[in-house]
Write a structure and sequence with these properties.
1 helix; mainly alpha
């Protein structure tokens, strides 16, 4: 039973670490999209 628990723990750890990297990348993409949207809004702002 102990070996089974270790295997499950290692599998879940790998899954969570991969998810963190994916979420970090998605966060960067969303942030860059927001910057581009702000830049476009400033450029097209009526005077």
């Amino acid at each position: 039973m102990n070996k089974k628990n270790i295997f499950i723990f290692l599998g879940l750890s790998a899954l969570f670490l991969t998810a963190c990297n994916t979420m970090e990348g998605m966060g960067r993409d969303i942030k860059a999209g927001g910057r581009n949207l702000e830049k476009s809004a400033k450029e097209n702002k009526p005077n």
